[in-house]
Design a protein that fits this description.
mainly alpha, 2 domains, 9 helices, rod-shaped, coiled coil
Length: 293
Amino acid sequence: MRHQYLGVKQKIRLSPHHFNWKDGPNHWENFLKYKEVFGDVQLHESPKPSSHKLGFDIDSDDDDYDEEEEEEEEDNDNGDGDEEEEEEVSKVRRVGSVVELREAVVKREERRREREFRREKGEAERERKRREAEFRRERRREWSEDREEVVEWEERQLRWARRELEKRVRLERELEAERRWRKRLEEEEMEWRQRMVAMQVEHEKQMMQMHVEACQNQMQVLGIMARLLCQFLGSGTDGLGAGLGALPPQVLHHAAGLATSFSGPIQSDTSLNGKSGVILSTRRGEARNENDG
């Protein structure tokens, strides 16, 4: 659009610093709009370029220029028109060819700039895509690292939880084993106490039976000795003999009653002998009193 604006501006140029702006829309309808939007663009004055300096083919311009010269020569040969007018026309035509060459140069420059712009735009787009790809790779790498850290943290938490569970189970097993051991000890202690109590009761029963038997034996011996003494001291027909005749049943009855009524602690043989001596002395005193009477 810029080169088109320059071309139209060159066409409406009246002098180096004067332009017919109203004639611009006749050549290009968006001429004034372009000027309002982008501003005026100055024309660059340059000498008439040659085909070698421009670097592109201008055969068409040379052909037009040759045709113009031929027409001028024909006009000179025929003698029609004024020389000044012919010079003006030739100047205008030369200016038109220069303008066309300038437009070609401008178009070529615009195309070059467009190519550079497209190339720069492509490079910028490739750079943007490269940065986006690098950013995505970096994000994926960070995400994978974060994911690995999360997985490692979860595995660590799982190991800790497993260890805590194993420790708790082990403690519960130890406590259960200790409770069973204490219960077994208590049961064994109870059984031992029951056996000891049973043995003690049985021992007391045996000792009591032995003491009862010993008392019975002692009473029988005492009865026999009392009978012998009574027979030795007195005759069997007097009152002493009659009184002592009934002694053994009483003594035996007393010994049996002692055995059946025994419920307190077992006494020693010395105490039993003492009691027997008291009974015997009492009987002797009674017998003497009867004899004196």
